[in-house]
Design a protein that fits this description.
The protein is an alpha+beta fold. The chain is built from 3 helices and 7 strands; from the N terminus they run E-H-H-E-E-E-E-E-E-H. It has helices at about 5-30, 35-65, 130-145, and strands at about 1-5, 70-75, 75-80, 85-90, 95-100, 105-115, 120. The protein is elongated, with a radius of gyration of 20 Å.
């Protein structure tokens, strides 16, 4: 099964990042109107924010042009974002969970590889619940079939 990155979600994130870049640029342009003792802090924060959200905007622009793929196969899970590729064998996956975000209004599918940091799988054409169910089903199926 191949799941593609959602262009709708990438578009929303892209424009959200551009909005933050615009706010940072606005802060840079209006820094002369604040007290001199605060100007250097505002300038530093604005440059850092513009750089951070600018890089994120480029990442989501890439997703709009060439959406990444998440391949779920008998060999495991492969995430190919075009600029980064990761693969997890079924035996390397300790746990899969469906979690609510801190704001508690969105769910994400979490992948817990053995001896590696957890991975948040979000932004795909499947919902987090559908992705979780698919991974759990295939993980059980492929893990059992390799033991026989």
């Amino acid at each position: 099964m191949i799941v593609r990155e959602s262009r709708t979600q990438a578009t929303l994130r892209f424009f959200g990042c551009l909005a933050f870049v615009a706010v940072c640029v606005w802060m840079l342009l209006t820094v002369a109107t604040v007290a001199p003792d605060r100007a250097s802090k505002i300038t530093a924060i604005s440059w850092i924010g513009a750089a951070f959200f600018g890089v994120l905007a480029l990442r989501y622009a890439w997703s709009l042009l060439k959406p990444g793929t998440l391949t779920i196969s008998p060999a495991g899970i492969t995430q190919d974002l075009g600029w980064r590729r990761k693969h997890w064998n079924w035996a390397d996956i300790d746990q899969v969970e469906l979690r609510r975000t801190a704001a508690n209004f969105v769910s994400v599918c979490m992948l817990f590889p053995i001896a590696k940091p957890p991975v948040r799988l979000f932004g795909w054409n499947l919902s987090a619940a559908e992705l979780y169910e698919t991974i759990q089903r295939d993980r059980t199926h492929y893990s059992n079939s390799t033991m026989i």
